[in-house]
Design a protein that fits this description.
Elements: E1 20-24, E2 30-33, H1 35-41, H2 45-48, H3 63-74, E3 79-86, E4 92-103, E5 109-117, H4 121-140, H5 143-158, H6 163-169
Bound molecules: flavin mononucleotide.
Length: 170
Amino acid sequence: MKNKIQPTREEVFLRDNDFIVSKTDLKGRIIYANKIFIEFSGYTQDELLNSQHNIIRHPDMPRGVFELLWKTLQSGEEFNGYVKNMSKNGGSYWVFANVTPSYDHQKNPIGYYSVRRKPSEAALSIIEPIYKEMLAVEKNAGAKEAIGISTQLLTNKLQGEDYDQFVLSI
Ligand SMILES: Cc1cc2nc3c(=O)[nH]c(=O)nc-3n(C[C@H](O)[C@H](O)[C@H](O)COP(=O)(O)O)c2cc1C
């Protein structure tokens, strides 16, 4: 499903004890959404199930972050990171997400699982300007180079730490 929703300035905030949970198949199609996910996304359960997870993608998010997310998951690692999401009405909400691969008994990957909580304001004040810069270089670069350049920018900003160490330290 193509997301044609216009982002608005409205921002909503997770409560301290909220967890947004979803499960996807290997292609990123949603196969489970908890009640809090339904509440914050503004979609019904029926609208969410079988949709690509990018149904809540916010245009402010740099592509380089999702590239990192998929590379990390496909290498069998867990991903931790900050994500700005867009709800059905165009409003936004920031989350701190943990995403992990799920396996069957033969250790074949069968899908992905994500739990998100409220991010700290201090962490967002560090991450938001980095994402803004990444997005700006992506917009200036050609489609082919965009992700490489923005990922390189992220690497430079982290000064020797990887993204995972970095996000867990802020
Ligand atoms: C378990 C799981 C959870 C995800 N959660 C989100 C999310 O909350 N927001 C989001 O924009 N993308 C999320 N993604 C990534 C999307 O699948 C997608 O890669 C991203 O929205 C970028 O969209 P695009 O690939 O169409 O550019 C998730 C992926 C997986 C596997």
